Fold this sequence. Notes:
Layout: E1 12-15, E2 18-21, H1 32-36, E3 39-41, E4 44-47, E5 50-51, H2 54-67, H3 76-89, E6 95-103, E7 117-125, H4 132-135, E8 139-143, H5 165-176, E9 181-185, E10 191-194, E11 198-203, E12 206-210, H6 219-230, E13 235-238, E14 250-255, E15 259-266, E16 269-270, H7 275-288
Amino acid sequence: MSVLPFDDRDGTIWLDGKLIPWREARLHVLSHGLHYGGSVFEGERAYGGKIFKSREHTERFLKSAELLGFEIPYTVEQLEVAKQQVIDDNGGGDLYVRPVAWRGSEMMAISAQQAKIHVAIAVWAWPSMFDINTKMQGIRLDIADYKRPDPACAPSHAKAAGLYMICTISKHKAERNGYADAMMLDWQGRVAECTGANIFFVKDGAIETPIADCFLDGITRQTVIELARRNGYTVTEKRIMPDDLKNYSECFITGTAAEVTPVREIGPYNFQPGALTRNLIEAYTAEVTPK
């Protein structure tokens, strides 16, 4: 399958305060962020040229950097303006939005106090991945070998690049085995999340989801919990063990890319995408659609 490489496209990218041609948005091979994981990012989605919950994403972006011990040299307001500028300059529409910040090349050792903090914002076309009928068939998930670490061992609430290394490994293995993604457990063997999405289960008309204490409490996750409660569903955040999965009738994942996507299989466990999941897909679609 031919894939358009991300370093060779038309358009513009916002880099360190100004829009530049896409192909000129470069960093040095000895950038500290590349070698030591000193990078944070956001995954956002624009619908009709407007980012859904943009400010919440920007605030988390700044918080992630703080958790990694560096300060992004732009305010929330400046980044909000910059994101909209990039969207408008690239034609608007339905887009994926990727702000990223990283430590530069001034130092090359564990210490990086003098490294410049660079910031870039890129956008690219990202239409809805499935129509409702295709989506309701559900996806298949493997169970990952790697586990989400103890929050005493990693900055779990930062959207930090280094934390996604085990996600890439796990997703690649799942895809090699014919699955769409993998569900990850936490360091104590409890259900946590997928490689890039949060996970929910349905039992007796009520929704249950793992407590987000060692993984990211996604903005889409928060939105879906709010929508579910608004629509009369009970949502409980609780500890869920793998063996509990046999007791659930429906399962779905949430994320900027996934939006709300039903699951029909996780390893040996099977689910039937149903009315509750469909209702939340429709409620989420209505929520993100510009009024």
